[in-house]
Write a structure and sequence with these properties.
Elements lengths: L9 H16 L6 H8 L4 H6 L3 H25 L4 H16 L3 H16 L1 H18 L5 H20 L7 H13 L1
Length: 181
């Protein structure tokens, strides 16, 4: 593996290490030194590749949002009928809520930043916009907006209910109510 600035994967390793670190310690625990150590890169690489912590965090969270949108796209692209689209949304809620706890934590960390800082609110708005565009392939814009909120809410509730998260039937009924009202 290359060790100088010619290492083509260094920037990617830094972004991945940033997301891993946030998932373990939260945004408040992020520092250039910690990320460099986790990514196994020289500390100077941090300022070479990113103008500062905000750029690093924005790019890392953008990468994360891209990954979640890709999951949504994968589920919805298989749907050809309204019934298949409803089934895809139901599958998506269960896939996301049963997925890595890391993703849940990263989502909440991003939302906390967005609640405090406009530049992160812009990032979450862009993410929601992209999600709604995918949903609008199958549903009208108002329904897509409602489904986007439903997906996030049900995902969060299922992921945090360690006792007995609601089952697929309840998710399917909620999706059906919104999409056929």
């Amino acid at each position: 593996m290359a060790t100088g600035h010619t290492d083509p994967r260094r920037r990617d390793r830094i972004l991945a290490a940033t997301l891993d670190h946030i998932a373990e310690e939260g945004v408040a625990g992020v520092s250039h030194r910690k990320i460099a150590a986790r990514a196994a890169v020289p500390l100077g690489s941090m300022t070479y590749h990113f103008s500062g912590m905000d750029e690093l965090l924005r790019e890392a969270f953008t990468r994360f949002a891209d990954q979640i949108v890709a999951v949504l796209d994968t589920h919805l692209s298989r749907a050809g009928t309204p019934a298949e689209a409803r089934e895809a949304v139901t599958d998506l809620v269960h896939t996301l809520s049963e997925g890595p706890r890391r993703d849940l934590i990263l989502t909440q960390e991003l939302y906390t930043l967005a609640a405090r800082r406009p530049e992160y609110q812009e990032l979450t708005q862009a993410w929601m916009g992209r999600s709604r565009q995918l949903l609008e392939r199958h549903f009208d814009p108002d329904t897509a907006r409602q489904l986007d909120a439903l997906i996030e809410g049900l995902t969060l509730h299922r992921a945090l209910d360690n006792g007995a998260p609601h089952g697929r039937a309840l998710t399917a009924r909620a999706v059906t109510r919104i999409t056929t009202a």
